[in-house]
Design brief:
By secondary structure, the protein is an alpha+beta fold. Helices cover 39% and strands 35% of the residues. It has three helices and nine strands. Helix 1 packs antiparallel against helix 2.
């Protein structure tokens, strides 16, 4: 008998099965983590940093579920069209402002996290915050924006 790291006895003839499952799980986890990183990047840069409405609408279709729920300190909006309107209003209020990543993207199962800064190009940020997203069926279904400064 072998003892695994979790201190549970394991029969030696079961080891190849367990290792095979672990390899499949790790590959699936890596693919999901990569997908979440792509979605979090798209949310910040392809949607909320995109001033061209046509490109932003195309990015929204790729990034979010039809019934996406977006929540920030001001309001909660539901659906892709409402999210597009939210992004457009924000960008209209502050011409010349851009989002930048405030660190790496973190993911855990179906959840993604990305800190960000927002301010004039080449200047210190005016506001910082974070986005936390829940992913379902390969798209962002719910996203929370929190302001940190």
């Amino acid at each position: 008998m072998l003892t695994c790291q979790l201190c549970y006895p394991m029969m030696i003839d079961m080891l190849p099965i367990w290792v095979g499952v672990k390899i499949i799980y790790d590959q699936g986890s890596l693919a999901m983590a990569e997908k979440i990183r792509d979605l979090m990047h798209a949310n910040l840069f392809d949607v909320f940093n995109e001033r061209d409405p046509e490109r932003r609408i195309a990015a929204i279709a790729r990034t979010y579920t039809d019934d996406v729920v977006f929540s920030d300190p001001d309001e909660i909006v539901t659906g892709r069209e409402a999210l597009n309107n939210k992004a457009q209003k924000l960008l209209d209020k502050v011409p010349g402002f851009v989002f930048t990543a405030g660190g790496p993207i973190y993911e855990n199962h179906d959840l993604g996290y990305l800190a960000w800064h927002f301010g004039p190009v080449g200047q210190p940020p005016v506001v910082s915050g974070m986005d936390i997203a829940i992913v379902k069926e390969g798209r962002i279904a719910t996203i929370y924006t929190l302001l940190t400064s």
